[in-house]
Structures are given as C-alpha cells and as structure tokens.
Amino acid sequence: xxxxxxxxxxxxLTKTDIHNAVSAALQVQxxxxxxxxxxxxxxxxxxxxxxxxxxSHFSISHVDHAEACLARLASVHYTQAYLWTCTLVSxxxxxxxxxxxxxxxxxxxxxxxxxxxxxxxxTGVGNGENFTMAMGCREVLVRGQKDVFxxxxxxxxxxxxxxxxxxxxxxxxxxxxxxxxxxxxxxxxGTEKN
Length: 194
Description:
Helix content: 40-55%
Number of strands: 5
Mean pLDDT: 92
Low-confidence stretches: 189-194
Radius of gyration: 17 Å
Shape: globular
Order of helices and strands: HEEHHEHEHHEH
Number of helices: 7
Largest sheet: 5 strands, mixed
C-alpha cells in the first residue's frame, strides 16, 4: 500500500505515546460522565507525531458512539492521506459500526484500552442500554483491504478503564439484573428466559 498516495508511511507508537493518549481519552470519558451525564466511552485522534491530540469525542447516544463520531468529524477536517498517518485511541474497543467508520475515514491506526469482552462483563448481559456485540475490531478490519494497525487491550490501563466505567455501569447493570430476576424483561439474546 505504500505506493498508493492514500497510504503514506506511519510513525510507530511508543508505550509512552499509548499511555498518554489513553489517559487523554479517559479524561474525556470522565468529563462526559460527570459533566454531561453521558455513557463512559471516549476517543481521541492522535496526529502523525503520535503526541498531538487533534480531536476528541465522547459517546452521545447508543448510535452516536465516540469513535464513529470522531472518525466522521476527522474525515471532514482532514484528507484521507493525512488520516492514514493518525491513530484513533479509545477507552473501549470500537464496535463493528465504529470500526467500519474508522476504516472508511481512512484512519491508519486504532488503539483501545479495554476489550469488548470486558465491556460485556461490565455492562451485563441483556442491558438494553448497551447490547455489546461479540465482534472485535480486528475481526471487522481483517475483512477489509487496508492494513489498519490495531493495538489493544492495553494491559496496564484496561483495569483502570474498567474501574472508572463501572462507576457508571454498576447501578445500570444491577437494575437490569434485578428486572431479569423479577421477570420484567423479555427474551435476551434471541432466546427465552429460563
């Protein structure tokens, strides 16, 4: 792909670059929850130097996810070739919808702190506010024609993101679990309740 002008060379990320970027995304996530009563998801876009935060976004709704909103915004502001040299860094692994948007925006790298599997544990099964899919971003990207760099989960930061996010999700999860026990929720995951 290097001969194609849409895919210029990228600078490799260092462990410090990753740590700083995830910390920046986590701060956006914390602000979203505490100041705006939003769900705990956030992303930042690193410039080609892997240090400059060009854009940041938090989750607005169940369809306006942080990563997809940021990728769409980035595609309006920057060229595809420039975005190929950038990295989207997220507190959580981008879902299939967000990963597709990142792919089409031509963002060349994705780093996420915590995995989609951990998200399902934190949000709980049958949580109508977040029906987590069992399809990680690598599974989506491997079906494309671009060599998008992916790193995650970030071992030393995944636990931090989980703990911070659980401040939001614990009461939501406990309410869903209580409603499931009391029989107030219908079928979950395409199967009837026991």
